[in-house]
Design goal:
Radius of gyration: 26 Å
Low-confidence stretches: none
Structural class: alpha+beta
Number of strands: 10
Distance between the termini: 66 Å
Largest sheet: 6 strands, mixed
Shape: elongated
Strand order of the largest sheet: 3-2-1-9-10-4
Mean pLDDT: 82
Number of helices: 1
Length: about 130
């Protein structure tokens, strides 16, 4: 019985496209890692990365109205009793959350691979929830 040449062509093209798709998305996606004293160690990669990126989130910061207590210190008097302060709702136009400045060795982080896995961007610090 003769084989269908079109079916064979479809099978070859399908296998080729499946292989190329796996290559394209392989090494892309989220991964947990640990900040080290000299770089980033991803959980699924053998070597420490010395060169990686860290997300920085510029934008507008809104602080809600709130009440706080604090001690007022001055050079001419002893420590005062805590006093109440009321803060109005505040918007800071050019706030910038800089994760890179807050990370330290031992911190667990979520990172994503981009550019086919050639670059890694640390997105945030991750913590366990004590329940």
């Amino acid at each position: 019985m003769a084989t269908d040449p079109y079916a064979e062509l479809v099978d070859v093209v399908h296998a080729f496209m499946n292989n190329k798709t796996q290559q394209a998305v392989g090494g892309v996606g989220g991964v947990l890692g640990t900040i080290t004293s000299s770089g980033l160690k991803l959980d699924d990669f053998k070597y420490e990365l010395k060169d990686y990126l860290v997300a920085e989130l510029p934008g507008r910061l809104t602080l809600p109205a709130r009440k706080e207590k604090a001690k007022v210190l001055s050079s001419s008097s002893e420590d005062s009793e805590p006093q109440g302060f009321e803060f109005e709702n505040t918007e800071i136009e050019e706030a910038n959350w800089q994760l890179a400045n807050a990370l330290k060795a031992g911190d667990r982080v979520l990172a994503i691979r981009i550019l086919g896995g050639n670059e890694v961007v640390v997105i945030c610090k991750v913590v366990t929830i004590d329940g």
